[in-house]
Every structure is written in structure tokens, then in C-alpha cells.
Amino acid sequence: MEKINIKQAVSMITLYAIGSAIVLASGAGAKQDMWIAISLGFLLCIPFLFCYSYIIFQNQEKDFIKQLEKLFGKILSKIILAMFLWYAFELGALVFRNFSEFIQVVSFPETPQYYIVLPMGFICIWAVRSGISTIARWSAFTAPLLVFLILFMIVLSIPSMQPDNLLPMLYEGWKPVIDNGLNVFAFPFAETVLFLFILPSLDKQNKSAAAYIAGSSIAFILIALASARNIMVIGRQTVQMIYFPSYAAVGIIDVANVIQRIEVLVSTSFMFGGFLKISLCLYVSCKCLAGLFNETDYKIFASPLCILMMGLSMILYDNVMEMFSWAEEIYKYYAFPFQVIIPVIILTACIIDKRKSSTATQKTANENKT
Amino acid sequence: MFLYYSAFCIAAYLYDASGKLKTSSAKTKLIYWFLAACAYIFISLISFEVKPPSPSNVIRFLTEAIIGKQIIKN
After folding, report:
1. The whole model's pTM is what?
2. Between chain A and chain B, how many beta carbons pairs sit less than 8 Å apart?
3. Dihedral class, residue A173 (left if φ above 0, else alpha if ψ from -120 to 50, else beta)
4. DSSP-derived secondary structure for A13-65
5. What is the value of ipTM here, to two decimals?
6. Cβ-based interface (< 8 Å): residues of B facing A
7. CB A132 within 8 A of CB A2
């Protein structure tokens, strides 16, 4: 069985969470209070991160699919697997579409999106076929680089920052902040629910909570800093008007006429993050599909599933406006069952199972005594 | 688009067929070729502008029906 260590797990969670969120400005509806909405979203997510890690901690089978079968029986576990298969598959298609829309809007307006999607799909198939340990090693190498790049862009933006843009605080009250906090909860923090399929490969399973919290915290700090930077540099009205505010904010950087036009670094960070996110979604989809049909080898399904994913990304939305309105208005409702309801049901089943087994052990111990 | 994706699909399927799929069980082969055919037909339909209903629209419709209000006013 493939193994990953804690450093690789933290890197994967960080890259996965910042992947598209750092470019797409999740929570932009809160205007100048965006950073509060992001903090609220992260705080809301913490109990669920513990819930996910508890499920992994209780997993003695070292495989989430086997754990589901043990907890729910064959039929119910297959239903849950089918739901996760759809969620991971659709999420992968959504990220594919985010990526192709981003490239089309900022770089190649005349190039059809399928030309952009296909090379990315090819690399993702390759990554999944190489296995989770390869993806994890790649993450451990890339995450520090990406964190440095993002911090570097924030530091270089300091001369263009106007802290007054963050005021007045809570001018429109708590409602938009809470509403956008829920958006940030659903995208990107609670999307880490898919790590239920990945973290059982962790060499020390009692470290899953540490991996979840550390990875998500790093991602939260970077997303909150980047959002505050965007508001301070280009102002709340421009942030709301444009689709990719990070790209615009970094485009303004000009240090002594030497360091300028470095927005390509934003594209680079999105490309790295997007690649990892799509690869992990494809990995989970393949695992779920293999689990549904009791297959042991999941890697063989990577290419047909990825081609289907790319096809789905083509028909998801008619245009970029629809993509953003769906992400802001619908996604939180759509993702709620996958991110909250199903994990809570699994957690409850885990607790009941643990109590049952501890009672049985106690009974046997008592019988042995007598 | 059709040619571009067809070339990709054929290359990917041939690579799989000459590699891992050779030693797989009949059930795995069946699932693989079923998925592969679905993916190819799906991509071909999209290439010829025959678009099936978008899942996002279906999800939007279902969400609006469940929460009982129109989320985005046109």
C-alpha cells in the first residue's frame, strides 16, 4: 500500500485549498469585510476538520472504502461511494472549467477552451497513474515554492496598499459577512472532505488531525492575506467588478521599474494548485469507481474518467458569468450534503461502532475474570 | 475539436490496452471499455455541438426547488 508522510499531507492540503481559491476570490461579496468572511468560513470549518480526522483516526482498515463497508454494510456503503464519486468527479470538472476560463480570460481570449484543458488532463492522468505517493512527493516539493511565491507577491504589493480601503468595517452589518463566510466554508475549506480517501495512506494515522489543521491554517493565512491585499491595492469596487482580482492586483506591482508585470506568477500558482486539485479529484473518483465494482486497481480508470471530466467541464456553464454566479449562489447548497451531512452520518456510525466494540471487549474481559 | 479529442482518446486507450489492461480481469476490461466508449461518445457529441443538459442547471433547479426560492433573479 502507498504511504505518505505528514509533511506531504500538509503540503497536499495546503495546495488543494489554495489551488483555485486564491485566484477566484471566494467571499468577494463581503466587499471590504472579505477577510472577516474568510476567517469566519475557516472557523466554521474547524469542527468539521476534526470530524474528518476522527473518521480517519478510527479507520483500522487503512482504507476508507473498507471502513464504509464495515460501518454501513454493502448496499449503503455503495450508495455513499456513488455520491462521493459524483462529488469528486463534478468538482474536478469545475476546477477544469475554472482553469480554462482563467487562461482564456487573462491570456488566450481567442483560443478554444478544449485546447487549454487537454494538456492539463494529460498530466493529471499521468499523475493519478503514478499513484498517490508520487502526487504527495510532488506536493511536498511544490508547496513551499508556492507559499514563497504568494508571500513574495504580497510583500511586493505593500507600496501600492491603501489600508483605508478596508474601512468602514461591517458597514452593511453581519449578513453579507455570514453569507460569504458560508461560501468560503464550502469553497475551499470543506472541500478537503475528499481527503477522507487520501489520508488513510498517512504513515501515522493519529497525525491526520494535525495534517488537516496545519494544511488548512496555512491555506487560510495565505487566502486571507491575498484577499486583504486585493482590497487594499485595487479597492472593493474593482474586486467585485473583475473576475480575477489577484491577477489585477499583482499586475500593478512595479518596484523601481525593474520588477513589474509579474502577474504570470499568479497564473503559475493557479496552474500548480489547479493541477493538484484536479489530480486529487480524479484520484478519488477512480478510487470510488473501483470500490463500487470491487476492483483493486483504480489506476486503470484514470484516462476514461478524466476524458469524461474534461467533457463535463465543457458543458457545465455557458459563460464565465454563469460560472461565478453558480460558485457564489448555488455551490454552498449543493456541497452541503457531501461536506456536512454525509461526514456527520459517518462520524455517528464510527462512534456507535466504537462503543459497541468497547462494550463487547469489556464483556469478554468480565467473563474471563469470572 | 473532434479530431483533437479523438487523437487523444485513441492514444490514451491504446496505451492502456497495450499495458495494464492486458493483464486485467474480464470484469475490469468490461468496465474500462464501457467507460471509454461513454467518454468518446460524450466528447464526440460535444464536438458536434449536441450538448446534453448541463448538470449545473439541473443542480440549480433542484436547489431552488428544495430551498423554495429563486436564488438568482434573471
Report:
1. 0.93
2. 92
3. left
4. HHHHHHHHHHHHTTTGGGGGGHHHHHHHHHHHHHHHHHHHHHHHHT-SSSSHH
5. 0.89
6. 1, 4-5, 8-9, 12-13, 15-16, 20-21, 24, 27-28, 31-32, 35-36, 38-40, 42-43, 46, 51-52, 54-56, 59-60, 63, 66-67, 71-72
7. yes
